[in-house]
Amino acid sequence: MMLVVQEFLTLDGVSQGPGAPDEDTSDGFTRGGWFVPHLDEEFERLAGEWLGEADAFLFGRRTYENFARDWPGMTDHPNARILNGLPKYVASDSLTEAAWNPTTVLSGDVPAQVAELKRRPGRELQIHGSARLAQSLLAAGLVDELRLAIAPVVIGQGRRLFPDSGAPTGLRLISHRTTPGGLSVHVFGTTGAPEYATYGAGTP
After folding, report:
1. Distance from C-alpha of 45 to C-alpha of 60, rounded to nearest angstrom
2. Are 141 and 124 a contacting pair, CB within 8 Å?
3. Please, which residues bridge with residue 145 across strands?
4. What distance in Å separates the CA atoms of residue 101 and residue 85, rounded to the nearest whole number?
5. Burial (Cβ within 10 Å: 0-12, 13-18, ≥19) of residue 173
6. Which of 89, 128, 155, 176 is found 20 to 30 A from 149 (Cα to Cα)?
7. Tens digit of pLDDT for each residue in 73-110?
8. Contact present, 65 and 189 (Cβ < 8 Å)
9. Residues forming beta bridges with residue 32, ordered by sequence position
10. No. of H helices and E strands in the chain?
11. How big is the chain by its Cα radius of gyration, in Å?
12. Is-contact 8 146, C-beta < 8 A?
């Protein structure tokens, strides 16, 4: 399977609390809900298409608990069958069991277990949100594709998907589009280590 990370970001790179003011207030974060004003039907259709490529989902504990709280009761939502029915994996050393079936808890050496999942047949193992988990797997060289939906807002607070101490990663642009709500949607494939060069004579 291919490991795909899907993230909502602000223009200054924050991924924390996109969906509601109280979604994630850890570390004193008070500016949640910044993505919602820019949602539109075009992006929701695109997100549904992406979801249709999944054969399994991988979450960090916080995102898993939010999804597990909300999605089992959203049976009338067009994406509910996929999210509720497909296999789910949650990376956590504190959870011992997970009630949102079918779910498997991954603890200990999570990158090694994710690498084993990737060797299984299938299409996509998708990470939704779960920025800390995405960062660790990007650093481990396990992420194949990044799908970033960037909202036209700068909030100046919160956890960033790409922190100052993050692993350097080369990317190639696969596609990009904008939506009527102002979202800038970029899909990147990973290419390993970045390339570096010096600008000068003969540089294109």
Report:
1. 25
2. no
3. 4, 189
4. 8
5. exposed
6. 89
7. 988 888 999 999 999 999 999 987 888 999 999 999 99
8. no
9. none
10. 5, 8
11. 17
12. no
